[in-house]
Predict the 3D structure of the following.
Amino acid sequence: MIQTENLSGYRWFEDATNDTDIVAIQRTETGWVVFATDERATPQGRREFTAEEPALENFLSRLRSSNSVEWREKARRENTPRYFVRELRVDGRLVPARLFRRRETDHGPVDEMLVDVDTWHPDTKGVLERAIRFPLDSDLEEISDAAASEVFAMVARREYTPLTRR
């Protein structure tokens, strides 16, 4: 998946002691650890896992977030809504559980969450704001307009399946 999506800036079960601006996953005595490093190679957002699958999911989500900076900048310049998804494991598959969007207005950004077909409510808890400010510590992943359209269709059908686009 990493090669398919052309993701970079990671260490896969390797030492990441002196690497800057990467996402790493490592095996420990008690399980797995996922973290990112900053511009000084200081580990940030360290999360420990006892099971491999959640560790790999967290690693991939963080890696996608760190690789989407250029895409986010382009969307910001074009003033298009940005979409973020929270996925949960249902029957062994990751499926969308909540969709958020940020849209720009004359008064600044507006963060909302989808509650039903074409029905958005304000994100009053600041979930999206925290995800944007601290992407490596978030369980939200930024997705494309095409992937958001998939979620809209799932909500309309009331049938949730894994996303085929990101």
Q: What stands out?
A: Helices lie at 52-67, 69-78, 127-133, 145-157. Strands lie at 10-12, 23-27, 32-37, 43-49, 82-90, 93-105, 108-116, 119-122, 140-143. The CA atoms of residues 19 and 113 lie 36 Å apart. The chain has four helices and nine strands.
